[in-house]
Amino acid sequence: MLQPVEKHSGVPAYVQIIHMIKKEILMGYLTESSRLPPVRELATIFEVNINTVLKSLDKMAQEEIVQSEQGIGYFIRKTQDVNDEAMPVLRETIRRLKTYGIGLEMTKLLIEELWRTENG
Amino acid sequence: MLQPVEKHSGVPAYVQIIHMIKKEILMGYLTESSRLPPVRELATIFEVNINTVLKSLDKMAQEEIVQSEQGIGYFIRKTQDVNDEAMPVLRETIRRLKTYGIGLEMTKLLIEELWRTENG
DNA sequence: CATAGTGTTCTATTTAATTATAACACTAAT
DNA sequence: ATTAGTGTTATAATTAAATAGAACACTATG
Question: What is the CATH number of domain B13-76?
Answer without folding.
Answer: 1.10.10.10
